[in-house]
Automatic annotation (TrEMBL):
<dbReference type="InterPro" id="IPR013324">
    <property type="entry name" value="RNA_pol_sigma_r3/r4-like"/>
</dbReference>
<dbReference type="InterPro" id="IPR036388">
    <property type="entry name" value="WH-like_DNA-bd_sf"/>
</dbReference>
<keyword id="KW-0731">Sigma factor</keyword>
<dbReference type="InterPro" id="IPR013325">
    <property type="entry name" value="RNA_pol_sigma_r2"/>
</dbReference>
<dbReference type="GO" id="GO:0016987">
    <property type="term" value="F:sigma factor activity"/>
</dbReference>
<comment type="similarity">
    <text>Belongs to the sigma-70 factor family. ECF subfamily.</text>
</comment>
<dbReference type="Pfam" id="PF04542">
    <property type="entry name" value="Sigma70_r2"/>
</dbReference>
<dbReference type="InterPro" id="IPR014284">
    <property type="entry name" value="RNA_pol_sigma-70_dom"/>
</dbReference>
<keyword id="KW-0805">Transcription regulation</keyword>
<dbReference type="GO" id="GO:0006352">
    <property type="term" value="P:DNA-templated transcription initiation"/>
</dbReference>
<feature type="domain" description="RNA polymerase sigma-70 region 2">
    <location>
        <begin position="27"/>
        <end position="93"/>
    </location>
</feature>
<dbReference type="InterPro" id="IPR039425">
    <property type="entry name" value="RNA_pol_sigma-70-like"/>
</dbReference>
<dbReference type="InterPro" id="IPR007627">
    <property type="entry name" value="RNA_pol_sigma70_r2"/>
</dbReference>
<keyword id="KW-0804">Transcription</keyword>
<feature type="domain" description="RNA polymerase sigma factor 70 region 4 type 2">
    <location>
        <begin position="122"/>
        <end position="169"/>
    </location>
</feature>
<dbReference type="GO" id="GO:0003677">
    <property type="term" value="F:DNA binding"/>
</dbReference>
<dbReference type="InterPro" id="IPR013249">
    <property type="entry name" value="RNA_pol_sigma70_r4_t2"/>
</dbReference>
């Protein structure tokens, strides 16, 4: 039998479905870097990308018996990577100061929960429209509550640059709300809290 490194993706998937740990290791070896790069592109933060990578391969092992060996394993991994990365970003956002400052949905109200989930999706979309530098400054200053000085020190940039990036981020989010009128009712209350 040829070594697993010579196997096709479909053959590896069949071995994995049978619980072959060596096949899992080979899949990890082949796809570790592209999956991580994809997670980093979505999360824009190394520690979050590492968390997403770990969740992807845990999911792969847990769901190994449900994989279709005739379909692209790489495609499956990237879909799982996307969902895990978005979930991690959502969790981070909800743990931020912004989440704590906005009104919470009523306990047990499904309608309120759905509305709240929609609001967070709009905010996440607005944040994802920012460049990596502007987004990071916005997260540090507005979501994590750091001062301009603390943000400048962490990112190794000047306090003046922090102010410029933050101002540009706020302008971008406001412009996002103008181009997406359905989001204005969500982003405007946030503006009252943070965009002063």
């Amino acid at each position: 039998m040829p070594p697993l490194a010579c196997h096709t993706e479909n053959e590896l998937a069949r071995h994995l479905m049978a619980g072959d740990i060596a096949a899992f290791d080979e899949i990890y070896r082949r796809y570790f870097h592209p999956v991580y790069a994809n997670a980093l592109k979505i999360t824009r933060e190394k520690s979050l990308a590492e968390d997403a990578l770990q969740e992807v391969f845990i999911t792969l092992w847990e769901k190994r018996t449900t994989i279709d060996p005739e379909k692209s394993l790489a495609g499956w991994l990237f879909i799982i990577c996307y969902h895990q990365s978005v979930n991690i970003l959502r969790k981070k956002l909800r743990e931020s100061l912004l989440y704590k400052k906005l009104p919470q949905p009523e306990e047990g109200s499904m309608e309120e929960e759905l509305k709240y989930g929609h609001q967070w999706k709009i905010l996440e979309n607005a944040l994802s429209s920012l460049s990596p530098q502007r987004r990071r400054v916005f997260e540090l200053c507005k979501l994590e509550g750091k001062t301009y000085e603390e943000t400048a020190m962490e990112l190794r940039i000047s306090k003046h640059t922090v102010k410029e990036y933050l101002s540009a981020a706020i302008t971008s989010i406001k412009e996002y709300s103008l181009h997406h009128p359905e989001s204005a009712t969500v982003l405007l209350p946030i503006a009252l809290i943070f965009f002063q």
